[in-house]
What we know:
By secondary structure, the chain is mostly helical. It has helices at residues 6-13, 20-35, 37-49, 67-77, 79-88, 99-122, 129-151, 159-167, 171-196, 199-211, 219-230, 234-245, 248-251, 259-262, 269-279, 286-298, 308-318. Helix 4 (67-77) runs antiparallel to helix 6 (99-122). The longest helix has 26 residues, at 171-196. The two termini are 27 Å apart.
Amino acid sequence: MHYHCIIHQQALCAKVIGFEHVMTPVVKIINSIRSRAKQHRTFKVLLEELSAEYGDLLLHTEIRWLSRGRVLLRFLSLLGEIKEFMQSKGEDTSLLEDTEWTLDLAFLTDITGKLNHLNCELQGKGKTVADMISALNVFKAQMSIFSVHLQRKKVLHFPSVQMVLKDNASASETFDKVAEKYTQVINRLGKEFENRFCDLDQLEPCVSFVSNPFMNVDTTCIAEQLSSMFSLDAGQVEIEIVTLQNDVHLKAYQGAPNFWCLVDTEKYSGVCTAAMKVASLFGSTYLCESAFSDMNFIKNKHRTRLSDAHLQDSLRVAV
């Protein structure tokens, strides 16, 4: 079986949202404020005088997965202060005062926030393929719910859009016009997730069985899937599954985190092999990338006497 890094795939899915007409002006305004030292200091003083929620804007970095969501959230939170600052400088603020554009900004902020939450759910050293598949399935189910809500002109799960509608009396009429556009974005995003992660649909039944071997399943079907996926004997695996599911002693430990360590590897050699192979699957390149970061931190200019053996030992401890 072949599949790509789940986290990278998720980041690629996010690109189908588009909304460049929102992101481009936001980045341009942020860069304009922060590029000049004097202007940047004046803006921070204004935020302090107005007791703003945040003390500064964030710069956008395309290569950082969580950057866009955080930048948009900070920008929307300081939108009033930004307009006041730009007006004091004699700059055009007609775009920031446009109701439809503001709603687009709020919607993009909400949806990128949800993508950031999913990205954080997929990261971590202890994440297994089962954890990642579960997180993806939850997100895809949420997309279906969001689509239905938007079709009914409801924004229960979009707090930023709710805030704009609450603060702007004329925004409700505009929202009725753009709700269909937002629904199409949600549907497009959901479809992209379905297409990119279709390979995991073949693996999911095997992962589900290993996570809960006592679940009610078609024994013949799951035995064929395990044998096909991991090159095992289907007949032997089927008998082992039936035997395992009727083992009273093992049933008492079905909730144990180390359940498969308690299973007799000789008596259940087929299903144990499948369980070990599922447990050894890497859902992402997170560990590899974090190891490179640790190595760069360890190999700094202040450690000139670091040998290859010491580096390997230090890296092993860090990872």
